[in-house]
Design a protein that fits this description.
3 domains; 9 helices; membrane; single chain; about 65% helix; mainly alpha
Length: about 290
């Protein structure tokens, strides 16, 4: 917003901090419990940041909606209205994410198991911080707006009577024009107007609904067809960087040794007397039989 009062930059920053606190809490708890930290876990903060910022937008949007419903109500009523609207969506998305990652802990790969444990626990902490820490930040930001304080310095901002004579940049940065002081209610966000007046009515048209059903049926059929033709396996080239020596190695291996299959290894799990000639002959005979 082009207003030094209604601008919510610090509120958005606190939403990112909330996601960061979730990452620190989950990583600290997992390390304290002795869960091994693998390289793939380093990608988890980006997932948590995405979900945390998404939850932040839901909370802020619900708070703005409550301002139009309960313009003259107290902060407790507005916060209750915000949680009533936002908490359900945030809870369901968190539950599905946590369930998906904790199911991943059943895998036999230790690295994947550690990644799922770290990430699933981080989602739990992200939910806790969103429902507690970020909700409190929203209230503090509301009190700052009510006090007509600047978004950056939090210092009181006066209302200039000669506002019309100033430049637009000066009015946006230095003049207190909080909508709470005006007799006119705050205008609805343009994005809300678009979805309410154009997007919603467009998709409620019967022909559009029929088209959506047909497109979804085609998508579902293509998905089922793809699942029936999926193959297990992974190209090891995809695990290395583009400039790695692994790439030309596998290229040359496919080019010059295409007749050879995958390498087979034999492991002797017991302690044997390798100095005994009879044992060595037995191992050699075993190898020849395998060949």
């Amino acid at each position: 917003r082009l207003s030094c009062i209604r601008n919510n930059v610090w509120l958005a920053c606190c939403g990112v901090v909330s996601a960061g606190l979730a990452v620190l809490s989950s990583f600290g708890l997992m390390l304290f419990c002795g869960v091994p930290f693998v390289v793939t876990v380093a990608n988890a903060p980006f997932l948590i940041l995405g979900v945390g910022v998404d939850d932040m937008f839901i909370m802020i949007a619900s708070w703005e909606q409550s301002s139009r419903k309960k313009e003259k109500s107290d902060v407790k009523s507005r916060l209750a209205e915000t949680y009533a609207e936002a908490a359900l969506s945030v809870t369901i998305t968190t539950l599905t994410d946590v369930l998906a990652f904790f199911i991943g802990t059943w895998t036999a790969f230790p690295s994947v198991r550690s990644f799922c444990l770290y990430t699933g626990t981080a989602f739990v902490f992200c939910y806790i911080y969103t429902m507690t820490f970020f909700g409190a930040i929203i209230v503090l930001n509301h009190k700052r707006e009510q006090g007509n304080r600047h978004w950056l310095t939090c210092m009181p901002v006066g209302v200039d009577k000669d506002q019309a004579e100033k430049s637009c940049l000066y009015n946006a940065c230095c003049i207190g024009n909080c909508s709470r002081q005006s007799s006119q209610p705050e205008s609805e966000h343009p994005m809300n107007i678009f979805f309410k007046k154009y997007y919603g009515p467009f998709f409620t048209n019967k022909w559009i609904k029929l088209l959506v059903v047909l497109l979804y049926g085609a998508y579902l059929g293509g998905s089922i067809y793809g699942c029936t033709h999926i193959r297990e396996g992974i190209d090891l080239r995809n695990l290395a960087s583009d400039d790695s020596y692994v790439i030309p190695y596998y290229d040359d291996d496919d080019k010059y040794f295409p007749a050879y299959g995958p390498r087979v290894m034999v492991v002797i799990t017991e302690s044997v007397e390798y100095w005994n000639e009879t044992v060595r002959l037995g191992i050699e005979n075993c190898t020849q039989n395998l060949e």
